[in-house]
Design brief:
Four Helix Bundle (Hemerythrin (Met), subunit A)
């Protein structure tokens, strides 16, 4: 796949998947209706803002890296030809899923919406099952020892701090 085609595929997939998962579905749950903040603390809303502001660049950068460095897209139908282990992937193996969950949870905290928090938890569970059942076995078959080494050094869900040497799943 050429870089241009990979970039186009990533852009189209970005418009479909993250927009649906972190936009359309949360809107259908909340209608963006602002409720009272959790525990009557406005600070909780600001934590939600921080989650979203930290997650959006991670999401965009990771999608871009899949196209430009990986030669593919995050979509299973057009996967990368090269293992992407730079950028956010240096710190956590699933930055896209983590960013999407953080965006949804951030929306829930901003809006004071329990339904969005439940959706965020269910979304993480769905991502976790998908990663264990499909994504990791596929990556292990495709990239072999390179992926095994990556897994030994980078955690599945908990971002490691720069400078740390080992990871746990």
């Amino acid at each position: 796949m050429t870089r241009g085609l990979a970039a186009l595929g990533s852009a189209v997939f970005f418009l479909i998947a993250p927009t649906t998962v972190a936009g359309v579905v949360p809107w259908s749950i909340s209608r963006w209706h602002l409720q009272a903040p959790f525990f009557d603390l406005q600070l909780i809303r600001w934590f939600g803002v921080v989650l979203i502001l930290l997650s959006i660049p991670v999401l965009v950068e990771t999608f871009t890296r899949f196209a430009l460095q990986g030669g593919g897209t995050p979509a299973p139908v057009a996967p990368p030809q090269h293992l992407v282990i730079t950028g956010p992937n240096r710190y956590v193996r699933n930055p896209i899923y983590l960013a999407l969950v953080a965006i949804v949870l951030g929306q829930g905290l901003i809006l004071g919406n329990t339904g969005l928090l439940v959706y965020g938890a269910l979304l993480w569970i769905a991502f976790h099952v998908f990663v264990l059942a499909y994504e990791e076995p596929t990556l292990r078959r495709t990239f072999g020892a390179e992926y095994d080494t990556y897994c030994a050094n980078v955690s599945r869900w908990l971002p490691r701090l720069p400078g740390s040497t080992s990871a746990s799943s």
